[in-house]
Amino acid sequence: MTCPHVSDLxxxxxxxxxxxxADCLAAGERTWAHLRICLGCGHVACCDSSPRRxxxxxxxxxxxxxxxxxxxxEDWRWCYVDNRVV
Length: 86
Fold this sequence. Notes:
Blueprint: H1 22-26, E1 35-38, E2 44-46, H2 54-62, E3 66-69, E4 77-79, E5 84-85
Antiparallel strand pairs: 1-2, 1-3, 3-4, 4-5
Domain UBP-type: 1-86
Organism: Saccharothrix yanglingensis
Protein name: UBP-type domain-containing protein
C-alpha cells in the first residue's frame, strides 16, 4: 500500500550519516535505539523509541513526509502525513 507522497520522492537519496543519527552525533550523543532515513533528503535520524526522537523532529522542521528504516535487513517506509506504512 502506498500514499500520494511516495510519488513526490526523489529517485534516490544518499544518507548524510553512515555512523548513526546525524543529530545525536553532532551533539556528542550515541544513545539512539533505531535509525531512519528521510527519503526526501537522506537525513539519518533516530526513531521515536530513542530519547531525542530526531526523525520526527526532522519531519516537523522540514516537512519531508516519508522515512524508511535505516536498519540492516529492514526496508519498510512510513508516511508521517498519512500516519501509515507505505
